[in-house]
Amino acid sequence: MSSAASKIVIKSPREIELLRAAGGLVYEILSEIQTAARPGTTSAELEEIAARRIRERGATALFMGVTNPQARYPFPASICSSVNEEVVHGVPSDRPLAEGDIVSIDCGVRLDGYCGDSARTIAVGKVSRRAQQLIDVTREALDLAIHEIRPYVRWSKVARQMQKYIEDAGFSVVREFVGHGIGREMHEEPKVPNYADRGSRQADFELVPGMTLAIEPMVTAGGPEVEFRDRDRWTIVTKDRSLAAHFEHTVAVTEEEALVLSNGS
Q: What is the DSSP string of the chain?
């Protein structure tokens, strides 16, 4: 067993239900944002939707105030809003969304002491065929992972299938950012990569009942390389400025399958 695997916190049925409640709130927020994300809407307006809903439910925003030693300031918002070539950690702004944009919204909350974390990429108006395919493949890669999760299977087996599905469709998997365990804290062990190679083998782990994971494929229409956008040292963009998409669900491993905790069910 790796040292990371030995630190994984197994959740009780009660804790899983608390995680489901937090995930349900995130689902509500993302659904409301998806309805509001139209040409002319700003990501700052989408942030207002999330902040209001979190406040009304007595929850707290997981991302607000998070620090990053490379960033110029703590993260200032309740959501990450990443447009077009922005992969993750985009800061909401007053720039209006335009017809044909795609925007990835990531939202995390803590409710009654437990965390929910989910993301989806939204088409703004009518988008190009390539952009829609990118969105579809990224979402389908997440669905594939959830379908393939079984107790006592190695995560690398699932990740390898995700990677093959994405790459067979002509897209690339981001490697610098991966999913994670989740529970009372937003980021717990283990790290959950969306690919499987020699470098990720050492951190591989066995899926066991009671494990709760945030699975989040990040996929690009060009190469897999990413970098910081200089202006804030938060926003991550594709190095070749190709489009990127991001989907995420909080998931619990049960005795038989994966239970999605952030789909509103």
A: --HHHHTPPPPPHHHHHHHHHHHHHHHHHHHHHHHH--TT-BHHHHHHHHHHHHHHTT-EESSTT---TTSSS----SEEEEETTEEE-PPP-SPBP-TT-EEEEEEEEEETTEEEEEEEEEE-SS--HHHHHHHHHHHHHHHHHHHH--TT-BHHHHHHHHHHHHHHTT-EE--S--EEE-SSSSSEEEEE-SS--GGGGGG--B--TT-EEEE--EEESS-S-EEE-TTTS--EEETT---EEE-BEEEEE-SSSEEESSS--
- Evaluate whether residue 168 is within a structural domain: yes
* pLDDT reported for residue 199: 73
Q: Is residue 169 part of a domain?
A: yes
Instruction: Answer yes or no: is 264 within a domain.
Output: no
Per the prediction, the chain carries an average pLDDT of 95
Residue 30 sits in which domain range? 3-258
Residue range 67-86, pLDDT digits in tens: 988 898 999 999 999 999 99
Q: Looking at the domain assignment, is residue 240 inside a domain?
A: yes
**Number of domains making up the chain:** 1
For residue range 83-122, list pLDDT tens digits in order: 999 999 999 999 999 999 999 999 999 999 999 999 999 9
